[in-house]
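Input.
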Amino acid sequence: MNAFSNTAAVAPAFPAASDERLLIPPAVEPRKTGTRRLALGRTIPFGALIGPALLLVIWSIGSIAGLIDPRTLPAPWSVVGTAIDLIAEGKLQHHLMTSAWRAAQGLVFGILIGTILALISGLSRLGEAIIDGPVQIKRAIPTLALIPLLMLWFGIGEGMKVTTIALAVLIPIYIQTHSSLRSIDSRYVELAQTLRMGYGEFIRQVILPGALPGFFLGLRFAVTYAWLSLVVVEQVNATSGIGYMIDLARNYGQTDIIIVGLVVYALLGLASDGIVRFFQERSLSWRRTLAD
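Output.
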């Protein structure tokens, strides 16, 4: 009796049925992952215009406050007035069409040659042995350094200008496309062999989709290089073009016309890059990237 009583005395008091919830540890809610926090976030509407708008505001404020000498850099409204006068006279349209035609010719020839060379070199060991070395040598030599030699070969006419632009364009197309071809995962090749794909189907289903990201990256560089080369070649025995207009304005100290030409070049570069990015997003819509 005493033992039972002592046991009862030291035994802990168990909670009643209504207090069983006290024995159950509180549920731990799963911690939310921060994957969305690591992403870039939502796209800022018209975000690409914020930087140029800030530059324009600073330029305007400096002109109004007299901090910028108008002989060195005319005010924005003076440049706009000059552009309107050039458009009214038809000069700007004429020079713009000439420059656009030269750039388009060089760009098309450079893209075609660069893509063909990249495919031959990227899909064949023999092609790589023959093609890759000369292209890498050309890559190490600035295209503008070849202008004196091209002038001896092609003269100082349109052929030299288009060839210079094409040589500048084909290098980024070749490098990026060739790199993408060689970076295709070998497991896709093994899968194609397992499915017994023909060579044509293998090119269409595996090679071309794998090379597209590099091709579009090279194309964005190529468009920029085309406009950069155009600026130089249009100052070599040219009678029309935006570069010729800028060079002629330099001789007469017409800073406002020079700024108009530079703005035109900038707008052409932004517009062409935007077009390439548009087709890049549509062609590579199957990819999921950090920007998505």
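The two ends are 78 Å apart (CA to CA).
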